[in-house]
Amino acid sequence: TPAAGTIGPDLTHVGGRLSIAAATLPSTATSFARWISDNQHIKPNNRMPAFGILSNDQLAALGAYLAALK
Questions:
Q1: Which residues of the chain carry a pLDDT beneath 50?
Q2: What pTM was estimated for this model as a whole?
């Protein structure tokens, strides 16, 4: 894409990857939701902040969206 993001990673086709979090989790909707809400416990000292402000339904929807980006 022509995106030139400076804050976060390029998520184009992120759902098509075999794994996320440096091969710690498979690329599934559940894994995306878990990573967003609890990433520091999965991979300590990574640069992404935890997003504890999202409800379980919002996390599930976001995880499903990311997994669909094939």
A1: none
A2: 0.82
